[in-house]
């Protein structure tokens, strides 16, 4: 077996160094991707919070309490009361849309999203305020989320 020269050891060290650089670059690219995703989720959260605050400004808690009580007891609602319930559902569906965005981005677990889908299905199939809100505002929602709600609506049994 021949002894390695200093030049041989230098070549081996150069190869190991090149491999280390490639591995480091792959790691940096992965971390950059993760940080970008985290920044996108954080930005979406901030925008969602602003949307929710805006939509809450149109809801009057006194009227809402009366409207919810009447709705739960099957009593006729005034136009204003129905409007308040629609606004509440609009807010509710914005929260659902945000959850869908997080799910699509991998920041919400599938089982958690399935629970949201069940609530969406129940609301869109049984809640008159949610149904009328959806007809009025559906064009303002994300295309993919509209598909989710449309599929839920199609699954309703008469």
Task: Please give the structural blueprint.
Elements: H1 6-56, H2 61-72, H3 79-104, H4 110-126, H5 128-137, H6 143-154
Helix pairs in contact: 1-3, 2-3, 3-4, 3-5, 4-5, 4-6
Care to give the gist of this entry?
By secondary structure, the protein is an all-alpha fold.
Contiguous uncertain segments of 5+ residues: none
Assembly category: single chain
| H-E string | HHHHHH
- Cα distance spanning the termini: 85 Å
| SS element count, helices | 6
What is the strand tally? Answer: 0
Cα radius of gyration in angstroms: 27 Å
Largest sheet: none
Shape: elongated
**Total tally of structural domains:** 2
Average pLDDT confidence is 87
Name the structural class: mainly alpha
Characterization of the model:
- The protein is mostly helical.
- The protein has helices spanning 6-56, 61-72, 79-104, 110-126, 128-137, 143-154.
- The N and C termini lie far apart (85 Å).
- It folds into 2 domains: 1-57; 59-158, no CATH class.
- The mean pLDDT is 87.
- Helix 3 (79-104) runs antiparallel to helix 4 (110-126) and helix 4 crosses helix 6.
């Amino acid at each position: 077996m021949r002894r390695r020269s200093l030049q041989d050891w230098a070549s081996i060290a150069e190869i190991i160094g090149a491999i280390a650089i490639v591995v480091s670059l792959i790691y940096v690219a992965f971390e950059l991707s993760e940080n970008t995703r985290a920044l996108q989720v954080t930005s979406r959260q901030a925008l969602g919070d602003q949307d929710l605050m805006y939509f809450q400004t149109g809801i009057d808690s006194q009227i809402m309490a009366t409207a919810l009580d009447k709705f739960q007891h099957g009593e006729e609602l005034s136009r204003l009361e129905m409007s308040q319930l629609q606004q509440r559902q609009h807010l509710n569906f914005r929260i659902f849309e945000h959850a869908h965005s997080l799910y699509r981005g991998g920041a919400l677990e599938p089982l958690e999203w399935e629970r949201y889908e069940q609530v969406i299905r129940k609301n869109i199939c049984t809640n008159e305020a949610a149904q009328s809100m959806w007809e009025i505002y559906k064009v303002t929602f994300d295309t993919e989320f509209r598909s989710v709600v449309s599929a839920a609506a199609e699954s309703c049994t008469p």
